[in-house]
User: Fold these one by one.
Assistant:
Number 1:
Amino acid sequence: MWLMLSAGAFLFFAMGINICDIISTKIFKVSIPGTIDFTEECMVFLTMLPLAFVALEKKHIKFSILEEQFSPKVKKLMKLIQYVLSLGISGFVCVRTFYNFLQSVKVMEMKRGVDLPIWPATFIVFFSFLILTLVWGVLLVESLEDKDGT
């Protein structure tokens, strides 16, 4: 839940800075420097933080039309395959984004224009995929422990 609230806070920050920029541009004819850059950074937080929450709540997009045609045992097998693939893919992305984060910190990579460090955004991408990987692992274990195949 705190992931969704954090993403919401970044949404309000992005909205606030954009509203202030619009008002400043219209009234004072001066734009707030770096508004687009800060908004771009907020978008990383907005999109990445809710990923694990959505997966944990099982609210991700899925196509159940085909799934409804199979028996409960086949459905359980399909779910297991989904969780194994999801765990593998998010685990791989987690490792890659961790190395990207380390490189960003090592060279202190900055966003052009406002000299904003990009390591917080790269950390959030890594952190989000770490949590997502853990969520897929938990869902896989839950699915393996499920005896009735639902």
Number 2:
Amino acid sequence: MSFIRPEAARGILRWVEPVIGAGVLALLIRLILLRLPEGSVFGWLALIVSVPVGLWLRAALGTALAARQSPAPGIVVIREGEVGYFGPEYGGFVALDDLREVLIAPPGRHRDAAWMLRAGMVDLVIPAGAEGADALLAELTALPGFPDLDAAATLRREDAGVRVIWRRRRRAISS
């Protein structure tokens, strides 16, 4: 028997990794401020270790912010450079190299948030609450200049309009 409601437990567990990352980064910053002015090896080591810990914290924040709120139908499949969605009415696969735009339709009064992946002739709409959609944000960070924290915030924001999160820059043709 649990004294914590399942929804509350999921909410707490969603933020465990960012809290641990912030705590580790705070300890490293304290060590840097205390030891680096002395020229200590520990200060330099803490400075070096703080970079990957900061990147880990950023990824953990993005994952926590983008965590799904309500379940939606369908399954998201991610494999080497490709995103797939199997839904009750539609589905398909899109290669990350073929993507032209990534849009997000934020949650509204009558709909849940959804990812919209545009790749030439193929448009893939993936509900943010679909099984496996949590990993989609981490996969899309491989795109050049993808704003992961902005995308995570847009998934939770309740606006009326669809927002372009990322657009591929056209390659210059050299002669």
Number 3:
Amino acid sequence: MCLFKKCILLFMAVSFFGCSYSHQNKERAFDKTVITEIVIYRTKVGVQRIDHLKKAKLISTILAKQDGFIARQFSQTPDGKWVDIIYWKNLDLAENAAEIVKSIPECELFFSDIDQKHMEFMYTETVFDYPHNLE
């Protein structure tokens, strides 16, 4: 898949998620700056999709208990890459949660599925949320 299509798919996923999240809550998701944690990766050879999904769902409940957690979106591209997007109130809380979950056994099992050679990790700061606050 070309880079343009990948960007469009990621944009659509993030846009859809932001809109659906704001409809579920009276407050808009991005009324103020939000930190988005984005991890794109492949699993190691031999990891079964269904097993990885079960682990991902389990750690969602763990992440939701972390201070600063807003929401999580977990998806997969047609070519098998996983895209894990987590929204946090600020960078300090996101980084703190990352340290905490490293030592939780259920999270360690999830992380052990990831092929570290094929992983991209980044934090982004929301600049605006279209159409909500394009000022």
Number 4:
Amino acid sequence: MKASKDKERVFIPADKGKVMVAMDKTIEKGGENSYEFKMKKVLDDMKAKPSIRAGKDWDLTDKVSREGKAIIKEMVEKEEMTEAQARRLNPNDCRAPRITGYPKIHKPNVPLRGVVSFIGSPYENISKALVPILRSLQGRTNHYVKNSRQLKEQLKEWTVQRDEILTSYDVEALYPSIPIDKALDLIENLLMSKPNLQEITRFSIGSIMKLLRWIFALTYCEYDGKHYVLDCGPIGLSVVGEVAIIYMEDFQMRAKTEDFPELAHWPWYVDDSVTKCKKRRSKEILDHLNSIEPDHIKFTMEEEEDNRLPVLDLALMVNRKTKKIEFTVHYKKTHTNITIKKNSNHRDSTKSGVIKGYVERARALLI
């Protein structure tokens, strides 16, 4: 039976690894292993509440769209944007964000990771317009790297002494952990202290903050024809990642103290970071990081094992003779080594482009 005609199962990409997973669709058919049962668990974890008005399911899209349009109308009246810009940004003909669960095949019992798609939602276009403004507030530390290539360029200059080890510190559930009120207050202060803001945008600080607070005020989604209000930020929206970086840069500045000189060299990528320290100090650093925002930001730690530590898609290997770090590519257990099947209908130019990409990646990471 073709997958498209199978009404009793769902076929969905795995959370990691290029494989498709088949799951029984309903609890009646698959019980606790069914997609329906596990999606209910995802909604419970997000503290989702049914969106109901007058005893009926309520799609909040019209309400949210009206609120967004009111802010944009006010900005046009203040000449902060043109009518043409307003037409591009106004939330017209929108739909509710949709939540999907992706199987975590690398974990026991294969739970689902809930991902909310904001494509076509009222927030999509306005979020994209705010991203360049928020990026202009970043870079207050020199810790953030854009990719594994930039990480390699930093680490290849390191000297790891014989009594030192490499340790990675990762934030658990970064996006849901960011305290939104604190983050928005921080952004407002940074905007007020930015002297060249008018060179970046015509939007006033007040309007920027109104748009941000509108985006973060209400997160809702649709699943299986019903609508829910979520007790979390709009994870999956482009603006969320920029807000998280701004907040974590402030966190890094607070974390660096004279008592922890190891954090002076502390490369980051989103929620992953790496540093070097004496082995007895790694747990002390972890405790220090977890003491800064104990109600919000929690770190986990991984130390090098057999002189090897995976970070992003790099495997960092410490050469104890030269005291330098050597590099190779790290593949997770879920990696299938398949990008495009050779018999697929992709263009030959696409297939050759994949090969060229792997060659360039090898040159950048291994040479």
